[in-house]
Amino acid sequence: MDNSDMKNTNIEVCPACGVKIEAGERVLFSAGPVGTRARLWARVCQYAKKPGCINLNTDAIGPIAASDYYGDIELPVEVAQPVEPLAAVVAGIQRSLDG
After folding, report:
1. What are residue 22's DSSP bridge partners?
2. Among 8, 21, 46, 59, which is most buried by a count of CB atoms within 10 Å?
3. What pLDDT, on the 0 to 100 scale, is given for residue 4?
């Protein structure tokens, strides 16, 4: 796609992070579903703070919902068997050698 095609489809490319914003509101992330300027700000722009960012206008960003932020990541936790203290392991080896 050349620049004339980009003007016809009204796509802005942020020089700071490379994300594409279509028609002033649809954010085309590099991975995942299409998002909004609010989601982009909540997940990237507020932290990156790079010069040239095109998503800093609060009027264009609009209201930010709790769902725009990343949620808490819950990782599965496996309960492992407690590891015997080293002294107990050494004592067990010693008993087997003596025995």
Report:
1. 11, 26
2. 21
3. 45
The CA R_g of the chain, rounded to the nearest whole Å, is: 26
Q: What is the pTM of this model?
A: 0.62
CB-CB contact of 20 with 27 (8 Å): yes
* Residues 19 and 54 sit within 8 Å (Cβ to Cβ): no
Give the bridge partners for 20, in sequence order.
13, 28
Backbone angles phi, psi at 44, to 5 degrees: -130, -65
Residue 36: C-alpha distances to residues 39, 58, 75 (Å)? 5, 13, 27
Asked if 42 and 64 touch (Cβ cutoff 8 Å), the reply is: yes
Nearest alpha-carbon partner for 57 in 26, 32, 20, 25:
25
pLDDT score for 5: 45
Neighbours of 45 (CB within 10 A): 20
